[in-house]
Amino acid sequence: MPSLTRLLVLLGGLLLGITAWAGPARAFSIGVAPHSSARLIIGMYQPLRQHLERTLGQPVEIVTAPDFTEFARRAMQGRFDLVITTGHQARLLQTDAGYLPLLTYQAEFRAVALVPRDSPVRTHADLDGATVFGLSPASLVTLWGEHWLHRNGIRGTSMRYVSAADSIAQLLLKGEGKLAFTSLANYQNLPPGIQSQLLIFDESLSMAGRVYLLNQRHGNRREDIEKALWRFAETPEAAEYFAQHKLKGYRRLAHRELNEMEPYANEVRKQLKLPSR
Predict the structure, then answer these.
(1) Which Pfam families did the record assign (predicted)?
(2) Which of 6, 100, 117, 118 could staple 214 via S-S, CB 3.0–4.6 A?
(3) From CA 100, how far away is CA 93, in angstroms rounded?
(4) How far apart are CA 124 and CA 131, in angstroms?
(5) Range of the domain at 241
(6) pTM metric for this prediction
(7) Same domain for 100 and 181?
């Protein structure tokens, strides 16, 4: 065999060896805050995952965490490439970890306080000493709920944290608590048979809802990833996704929206034992 041919064969074998050693391409990780069960979240974001996998030309995975506090901790550690989380955590990740805010949903985000439809609760005083449910200590709706309890002079309540909104609704209807805090979107996405058994006792003003943020390590890909998200919004799969979950579509963030989340972001800093700003 001529020497040049032998050299090409050797180089080819070396390249194949390097490729095999490197293994498959690392998946692009989309971290979604645990606003529902992991099963529901993974199913909900499949159209987006499939679109980005085709557009970015690499594997894409949807991941979450057991609760909002752990999700914030993992995001602060940089374990996600793209994050979808509520405004207060988005503010924390922007200011303390350098994440780049991209967009949010057109639908308003509100926290709601729910009671069973047949509940005897009629006034704030009826909630004194009650068990109430929240998603986790670092959840925006839970933090809003704690402020709401304080503002309305409701005393002696016991907050019980539950990992998902659908589980909260079930426990509330079983009589294990008198009131639950969740988002309006999660309430609207409950099965009709469960939703019809609940009433909104009170709700918040509009707040920054689920925000998409890019890990700064992908800053050089920001334009491509943003374009991929906006192209997804134009697909039939996205239209179905937006309609099913009452999200209406994507929109750009106003600068003030995340700034207004700073007091709630500071609550998460305290829980993660980070310095206050």
Answers:
(1) Phosphonate-bd (PF12974)
(2) 100
(3) 8
(4) 13
(5) 28-108+208-272
(6) 0.81
(7) no
